Amino acid sequence: MVQATTLPRNEAGIAAAIDTLKARFGDQLQTGQAIREQHGHTTTWITNQAPDAVVFPTSAAEVSEIVKTCAEHGVPVIPFGTGTSLEGHVNAPAGGICIDMMKMDKILAVHPEDLDVVVQPGVTREQLNTYLRDQGLFFPIDPGANASLGGMAATRASGTNAVRYGTMKDNVLALEAVMADGGVIRTAQRARKSSAGYDMTRLLVGSEGTLGLITELTLRLQGIPEAIRSARCAFNSVDDACRAVMMTIQYGIPVARIELLDALSVRAANAYSGLNLPEVPLLLLEFHGSDAGVVEQTDMFASIAEEFGGFDIAATSTAEERSKLWQARHDMYWACLQLRPGAKGISTDVCVPISRLAECVSAARAKAEDMGLLAPMVGHVGDGNFHALLLIDMDSAEERAKADTYVGWLNELAISMEGTCTGEHGIGQGKRPYLTQELGDTTRYMAAIKAALDPENILNPGKILEM
Amino acid sequence: MVQATTLPRNEAGIAAAIDTLKARFGDQLQTGQAIREQHGHTTTWITNQAPDAVVFPTSAAEVSEIVKTCAEHGVPVIPFGTGTSLEGHVNAPAGGICIDMMKMDKILAVHPEDLDVVVQPGVTREQLNTYLRDQGLFFPIDPGANASLGGMAATRASGTNAVRYGTMKDNVLALEAVMADGGVIRTAQRARKSSAGYDMTRLLVGSEGTLGLITELTLRLQGIPEAIRSARCAFNSVDDACRAVMMTIQYGIPVARIELLDALSVRAANAYSGLNLPEVPLLLLEFHGSDAGVVEQTDMFASIAEEFGGFDIAATSTAEERSKLWQARHDMYWACLQLRPGAKGISTDVCVPISRLAECVSAARAKAEDMGLLAPMVGHVGDGNFHALLLIDMDSAEERAKADTYVGWLNELAISMEGTCTGEHGIGQGKRPYLTQELGDTTRYMAAIKAALDPENILNPGKILEM
Predict the structure, then answer these.
(1) Is the ipTM reported for this complex over the cut 0.85?
(2) Rounded to an integer, what is the distance from CA A273 to the centroid of its chain?
(3) Taking the CB of residue B340, how many other CB atoms lie within 10 A of it?
(4) What is the C-alpha to C-alpha distance for residues A102 and A100, in angstroms, rounded to an integer?
(5) Does residue B82 contact residue B144 with C-beta atoms inside 8 Å?
(6) Helices A357-371 and A238-250, axial angle in degrees (round to 10)
(7) Cβ contact (<8 Å) for A250 and B183?
(8) CB atoms within 10 A of CB B366
(9) Which domains are present in chain A?
């Protein structure tokens, strides 16, 4: 685990860039301490490293102007959406200019006949889905937080629906982006598929603002299913629950969501969200399809669950009950923090082949217990991805060291199981050594791409790569 | 349309590299004219540009050795699979060493519980599916030709099943590749999803051997559906058929295949494959699901088709009839060539947003008729992708010029409709100017990536980019 290291600051360049940008952008640029700190990293344990100024552009042309100014003075540029990333993505370790994209919040075009939409990067997923609802369409990626779509693309976000609908890499058709030299590019046309040259769309998706700044997204949409049914099922152990998940995926049941909560996180959810769930390991599920189809899927799942001792299976097709359940799932991060008021949450994010899931989750639980760590666990288990949220007193050097040890141990375990240290949160500042551990020499070629596209290393420096 | 331009040859380097490789690889390296020409471009109108030698490695380590030798001498390296690409991908415009991957044809590991498989690049899709059948699994991407999986990844292939299962970009989990400096990398772990750094997997998929040579693939698999049903439906016009496709996609019917044949290509199929299909525009479809589900899907499609004057709807669940139908579809390229014996086929490959499909296909037909070109049309219309196969007497300068004009006109039309000049065949030698036309300045950043990863431009030079 890397504490937020500080990089050398180009003081003269930063001052000059701010002068130029202030003259050009006036009140669109802010330098007050509070606003700067709000734009440093907020939702996690990582130290806040505030930028020197925050600018609020309204168009790709303005973003390009800002980047050109910063390039001229060798000053870092950090893109910002809703600030809900968990790995220090929006910190400014070398200072610089934060570009807050949230004034670029327009839905530019919906093409219902093509099942796609064109949006600015500051549009949030809830804003988009509210807008689309009347047309019977929705955008399926749901990381929990009401994140901006630009930020979700930049971090290759996924979440509860990914088991059925994929991640951001599968749902972005094309991007407009401002590159390190200020050039504005379009990565692809609007056709559903293409073999036209290098896949710049997917190179930018997940590049965490280090290769280009996303200024427009063309996203694939889905029709709202005829029927949606949610269900929950209790298990005697996390191991049994994981085995039921493995079998469900192997049988090809097209679950739209299949989420694990361990007993501790169920307790947190009950307390925070006023629910009355049985405080044992639970799976929460959602099925999408025709009226008959969702019942068939629920029944198939129930048969599998029973083989693994699943009990207390409850299914519902009411929107209200369903919303309450998923809202509780989405609020889990905040709910778990309440298990130990004052503690910070450090979330792990390993993802392993589904055949190794039960083993990995069980080992992670046992290790946390051994080490005396309070660590509720939840997971997008249909993808083999789960999170342990370590609740740590950051004033205790001993606890910080323990958390360090645990995170490193779990990342190594996942990597040894052909898994990854990050299923969906990204590398950011925190996981850079683990990326090298996971992919070895491949990071050398990633660095070559970074150097080719951003030779002065001004785009979100200190993230992803150790350079 | 670009004729295969010749690039400057490094004669001394080529001779030196062949000497070194011959000493190391013995009979694994061949320099006979016939074998060299077989490894130049074969299936299309583009002039054959044979490599200077063909080498048959059996491992990534051997590929790495070959690339290192070629790098040392500044000699081009051209990867080769089954040679079924259509845009001059395997030509050697500057000479050099062809690396034939077909001795690397092992299926290394099947993980049924994870729905994935690890293969060498010379495994063909039919070989893989035959191997998997007993386990109830299949690999869904089907470009028609029995192509190698390495080649399919390199060209981002898709084909008839893409409307449901996506393209190679969606079905490759991870790659092992040899880079221009001989380094061997692994792009990702085997987990189903990851946010670990730049998406090197998808950067290599579709890079046509210009950024790295694929030496191993981890592929996603699907369970063989409980039921498969195929159907055909006749229409009075291509326009009506396209409108039925648009509506089918918009209704979210999860068709596994939805293919258009115009009257001319139906005639070709009847003659070549001994069928008795009505010689009018046809849609061929396939539905995957439960026994009840495929009937429901067929009925939903039939209702839509009837709205657009569809008639003579015939559906079947027999494997034999289905195979016959799809074999005829797969043989279409060869069937169409028989419409004009001695002619060469030049296939267009535009792909447009589905809302523009009917308009684009109709315009393409009208233009071919206007210009007096014999051009049967078939299409993966569920993706908005279709092919006109221009049957051209290559000895006639007038016909060649007409074909040039037509291809350029159609690519421009598709681009003006927010579509692409290539849905699945790739850029290769033939479409380089259109890539620039389609994506403009974006190609400059693609060139920067190419220069960073292959500074000596030894990996498949003269493909994708005009450099």
Answers:
(1) yes
(2) 22
(3) 15
(4) 6
(5) no
(6) 160
(7) no
(8) 10
(9) 103-223 (3.30.465.10), 227-334 (3.30.70.2190), 341-435 (3.30.70.2740)
**Rounded distance, CA B422 to CA A191, Å?**
10
Give me the average pLDDT of each 10-residue run along chain B (467 residues). 76 98 98 96 81 98 98 98 93 97 98 96 98 96 94 96 96 98 98 97 98 98 93 95 91 92 95 93 94 91 97 91 88 93 94 95 96 96 96 94 97 98 95 96 98 98 91
Sole residue written with tokens 């050099």: B96
Cβ atoms of B294 and B288 closer than 8 Å = yes
Query: Which chain B residue is nearest to residue A156, measuring alpha carbons?
Result: B195
Nearest to B191 among A185, A196, A419 (CB): A419
- The span from the CA of B433 to the CA of B404, in Å, is 12
State how far the Cα of B424 lies from the Cα of B422, in Å rounded to an integer.
Answer: 6
- Compute the distance between CA of residue B369 and CA of residue B433 in angstroms, rounded to an integer: 26
Report the C-alpha gap between A127 and A146 in whole angstroms. 9
Interface test with A, best of B193, B413, B435 (most A CBs within 10 A): B193
The maximal CA–CA distance of chain B, rounded, in angstroms, is: 69
Q: Which of B157, B199, B200 faces A205 most closely, judged by CB atoms?
A: B199
Nearest to B228 by CA among B127, B323, B343: B323
Cβ burial B105-117 (10 Å sphere, 16+ → b, else e): beeeebbeebbbb
Tell if the CB–CB gap between A156 and B195 is shorter than 8 Å: yes
Please name the residue that has the structure tokens 């990914």: A162
A141-189 residue pLDDT tens: 999 899 999 999 999 999 999 999 999 999 999 999 999 999 999 999 9
d(CA B240, CA A283): 47
Residues in chain A within 8 Å Cβ distance of B113: 246, 250, 354-355
* B348 Cα to chain A: minimum distance (Å): 13
Angstrom distances, CA of residue A368 to CA of A44, A269, A347, A372? 20, 20, 13, 6
DSSP per residue over B244-255, as a string? HHHHHHHTT---
**Distance from CA of residue A267 to its chain's centroid?**
24
Unique residue bearing structure tokens 């400059």: B444
Distance CA A405, CA A134 (A): 49
